[in-house]
Write a sequence for this structure.
């Protein structure tokens, strides 16, 4: 039997979905790191950082260390060795569906290595690995 709903309308909005999750990135000291995610049905993005092996994540903002913290592509600006093994993930949502919780991506690890060749004043030095 049909039920009269009055003047209510029902709409169906597709869920936020990750078609590509961020992947680990390996960079040399002095080079930028980058993470990317492909997300469908989302219009709001926020990258987060974990410095404790993924136990806790905190929101990051654009500045001297990061660019693109509210987009699908995050750039980590010339990270130092101290940021080795930091983890990043993306929170995505659709602001048109505020009742739906944001969806988090898989986390990706930033790995940082020191180059084995150093060039300074037109001289090249080879560094022995320990």
């Amino acid at each position: 039997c049909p039920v009269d709903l009055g003047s209510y309308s029902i709409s169906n909005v597709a869920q936020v979905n990750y078609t590509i999750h961020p992947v680990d990135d390996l960079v040399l000291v002095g080079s930028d790191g980058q993470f990317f995610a492909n997300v469908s049905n989302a219009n709001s993005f926020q990258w987060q950082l974990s410095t404790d092996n993924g136990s806790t994540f905190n929101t990051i903002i654009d500045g001297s260390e990061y660019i693109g913290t509210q987009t699908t592509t995050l750039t980590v600006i010339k990270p130092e060795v101290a940021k080795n093994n930091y983890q990043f993930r993306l929170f995505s949502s659709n602001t048109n569906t505020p009742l739906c919780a944001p969806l988090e991506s898989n986390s990706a690890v930033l790995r940082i290595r020191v180059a084995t060749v150093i060039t300074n004043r037109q001289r090249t030095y080879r560094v022995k690995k320990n």
